[in-house]
Amino acid sequence: MQTIKLPRLFWAYLRRHARLIALFAVFSLVFGVVFALYDLPVEAVAYASAICLALGGVAAAFGLNAFRHRHEALVALRENAALGVDGMPPPRDLLEEDLQAIIRRLQSGWQEEISRADQERADMLEYYTLWVHQAKTPLAAMGLLLAGREDAAALEAERFKLERYVDMALQYARLGADASDFVLRECALAPIVRGAVRKYARLFIAKRIHLTVEEMDARVLTDDKWLSFAIEQLLSNAVKYTGENGHIRISLCAPLSLVIEDDGIGIQPEDLPRVFEKGYTGFNGRAGEKSTGIGLYLCKKTLERLSHTIRLESSPGSGTRAIVGLEVRRVPFD
After folding, report:
1. How far apart are the C-alpha atoms of 133 and 13, rounded to whole Å?
2. Torsion angle, CA of 248/254/257/262, rounded to 10 degrees?
3. Angle value at C-alpha 79, between 75 and 85, nearest 5 degrees
4. Among 213, 217, 243, 249, which has the highest number of CB atoms less than 10 A from its own CB?
5. Closest by alpha carbon to 233, among 309, 171, 158, 282?
């Protein structure tokens, strides 16, 4: 434990009580001047001042000793601050009480931040555990297809699923980091949409889904890589919950909103307000045992980081309509 040496401690104590010492000197001077003006013996003032000075010296010695003990207690508390601040000396006045309240408030916020970080790490571990189990399914299917010499198209579909799970895990990890991976610039929307559609072309063909992509001559302030990831998640859900020979339509509507709609099984009304919650699969996800409840969560988080919005409109048996608002109303990461 490192403490201040006695000379420095003494001067620190004097500085702390400098006003009181100066006030005592001024009072002694006033008494001396008044006694001199009235031709009273100045020795009386000097004698009284000397007595007060002696008593003050004794009091100062006790005060200095208390000051030293208080300093040592605070140094010990500083060395163990990570364990808490409950060992602080009792406040001597209202100001010290206020300062200790501020310290306790800061410690409470710090502990909440640690708890939040611990929870995020726990969530990360939980997600990766879930992802590993999810990835085992297409891997096992690939093994069966190879063993039975099934057609290459089915094997490629399983490989694509695994690739998508890997991408989701990577984006999940990156979303938890700082904002440096986001590079905002003005981008043409059409190439981003076409790239996402090409990535899922095999699944459209495999399920014989009819896809309509309308012309969209628009430019948006975004990060093309992250926006593409969000669109891919929406397309993945649309393909997953749309039956064979279904229809998916991608269009642009005012004010600068990308719309992806399908004629699939739709979403139950009680599930619709919670579909963006992490880990929430809803009735459809539980019934089909295909959903991890991560895709839409990552999609919403990504769009929020880009200062975009998303909302879903759906009803059972009538398909789902995802509306992505691409207008940037604020500068992200401020």
Report:
1. 65
2. -20
3. 85
4. 249
5. 171
